[in-house]
Amino acid sequence: MKDITVKRQDFDRYLVPTYAPAPFIPVHGRGARLWDQDGRERVDFTSGIAVNVLGHGHPALLKALREQADHLWHVSNGFTNEPALRLAKRLVEATFAERVFFCNSGAEANEAALKLARRVASDRFGQQKYEIVAAGNSFHGRSLFTVNVGGQPKYAEGFGPNIEGIRHVPFDDITALRDAVSERTCAVMLEPVQGEGGVIPADADYLRAARELCDTHNALLIFDEVQTGVGRCGELYAYQHYGVTPDVMTSAKGLGGGFPIGAMLTLARFAAHLTPGTHGTTYGGNPLACAVAEAVLQQVDTPAMRSGVHERHTCFVESLDVLARRYGVFGSPRGLGLLLGCPLTERYAGQAKAICNIAADEGVMILQAGPGVLRFAPSLVIDASDIEKGLSRLERALTRFLGDRQ
């Protein structure tokens, strides 16, 4: 095969402009560090947006992928396969769930959850029970259904009429939630921690109220754990931190540790409504993806990993608090585990992207959660030395950011 040299400019020439990628191209990763085409190294506090939970090039994941690649890459969904069965069994044993549906992304998992909720309600109570209640400023994916359920209208604008039967209420507002849920409600969909909406953890009483309302009105409680799951918040899934059990939960991002996979988890009595032919996906349950995801869970679902996440959380929070007081660019961090957000102070509101760009130039990659929040979602196994080095580079970036504005 002919070697083709590519540069960042080729993105603008050949790809649909749905993204505005950084001016450098990462080509190699190990642990919590990435190197670009020019050989420049950066500390990665993004994990591919909370995806690479074990960092880059983890040996257990490489081993699982190579071994499975030697056996079987793909079969149609007219067959099952051993990695999918092993992964489903592991997920069921580790969570509230009794059944698993595999797909390829968080959006697909959420689409399946929403379709399941409407199907269950229609079968049991009639077609009039189809309303979905979700939180304002939420994010559930980019399919037409999920952008409508997500509480950020900008993502649904320009794609035709909105899908009917979706109501949005302020996040963490129990009174508003009670006013919105009715006998027409088939599901309440919530993120235990709003990610794209600013890294805002729900109050436990709010999630308990959602559980009670769903029980009262025969609606399904759906937790979108695409970003909060697979150890990200300190427990395997965030619902375990809160002690509130959903009827349906979605997982993706960290589940494959960087290999594309998604999953919808639910109870057998609800899963029974998705009979053969009612839903599907060509690549769902792919042997390669499931083999890697099983290796991820083997590494993540341990007491040592949970303890390590809590230790790293403390380290990040204490250090970010120091930077917050020293520079006044952002406030104290909020979030759970290693999903943290620092809201920008009023003077620098809306400038998260500029700070992220300067930080990348100084050798540390961070995220934004909207224009007003800096988001940190590093590998769950990031070394203390990488945390220290990355935060030191962030401090340089803050100094430079302030200097550019004098």
TrEMBL record:
It catalyses: N(2)-acetyl-L-ornithine + 2-oxoglutarate = N-acetyl-L-glutamate 5-semialdehyde + L-glutamate. One of its GO terms (cellular component) is cytoplasm. Belongs to the class-III pyridoxal-phosphate-dependent aminotransferase family. ArgD subfamily. Pyridoxal 5'-phosphate binds at residues 106-107, 139, 224-227, 282. This is Acetylornithine aminotransferase. Its main location: cytoplasm. PROSITE patterns: AA_TRANSFER_CLASS_3 (PS00600). It comes from Pseudomonas matsuisoli.
